[in-house]
Amino acid sequence: MSDEDVEAIRRRPAYRAAMWLGRLVIMPQVVPFVVVAIDDDVTVADAVFSYSWLSLVVLAGGFLLLWRAGVPFTRRGWSVETAADFTLNEAMTSDFFFRRR
């Protein structure tokens, strides 16, 4: 994959939206503890179970947006990974953590 291909993927709106979904996926993990702190009738286990599906939906949406942006994926058994070279993986990591490249 050339540098021009990587830059074309990084400029797409779907790629930027996927990065934001990846950053926000932690929020459904924090919400149950806020709900438990506010409401005394809800247990931690019930709150975590009721909000865990939301994390899966956000994560799946992020992968779908990355796929729409042109990031190549490959399937190996039960797991899915990027089939891109080191350049795209490094760019995705730096974009996710707000680092300048």
Description of the structure:
It is built from 5 helices and 2 strands; from the N terminus they run ααααββα. It is mainly alpha-helical and 101 residues long. It has helices at residues 3-11, 13-24, 27-38, 44-69, 86-96; strands spanning 73-76, 79-82. The chain has one domain (3-97). Helix 2 packs antiparallel against helix 4 and helix 3 (27-38) packs antiparallel against helix 4 (44-69). It starts with a helix and ends in a 5-residue tail after the last helix. A two-stranded antiparallel ribbon has the order 1-2. Keywords: Membrane, Transmembrane, Transmembrane helix.
Fill in the keyword field for this structure:
5 helices; 69% helix; mainly alpha; two-stranded antiparallel sheet; 101 residues; 8% strand; elongated; 2 strands
